[in-house]
Amino acid sequence: MRARAGEGWVTITELADTLARDHGLSFRAGHGIAARVVRAREADPHAPLAEVVRQAAVEVAGREIPFTEAQLDELLSPEHFVAVRRTLGGPAPEVAGAALDVSRSRLMADAARLDSDDAYRDIAVRFVTASLQGWAYCRDNVEECRNVVVAKGSKLGDSHQLWQMNEINKLIWPADGGVGVIDEAAWDRTVQIAMDTQNLEGATVLTAPPTDGAWTNDIVNEALANLQDLGVDTTGSDFQPTEVTLVEGGN
Hints:
Structural class: mainly alpha
Mean pLDDT: 92
Number of domains: 3
Strand content: under 5%
Largest sheet: none
Helix content: 55-70%
């Protein structure tokens, strides 16, 4: 996995970030240099990386920015790429570990409150009801939902957003057991795969089975009952994806 993480210039954005963070370049200039580095090394894989970076910096920024080969090896390593991202939500182990601890605590507190606070549970049911109603609406009104997203300032155009909405719909519909319902057999299969499938270092996603109460359909079943009372089709058994023609540039 470590080797795969270093393939395909996955970590090259750290060069751009370092140029902006430590050398005073704009992010645009940093990414311009990074793009030139990738193109140059793809054209000549044996070219010294430090020289490639130096030349790209001259072309984009008008000045040399010296790095040694050892510095660039460290800069572009998967370990550095992960460790340096310490902002909230980042993958650095200490940040991700703290976020997981907070999430677990909040999840346990939330589950307890759902069992003890009727008003809070009502909010949860109404929230899920509205969310699933929205997915059903976008199933039946795919172009209108695309228009809403584009009108809100999407950086991507009409055809791309229509394609994306269509692909999401194909992931959701048809929903034989009702939209949002967790299928127990699928859950068990996913757990087994997560416990049995090892990565290249021999680790698995799960090291122990999930505890009781790790999942529930209680809230979603109440939401589905609400939607059925409203006459909303919650299975989409007749769903057919729309035909989308992608336009160059996504417009």
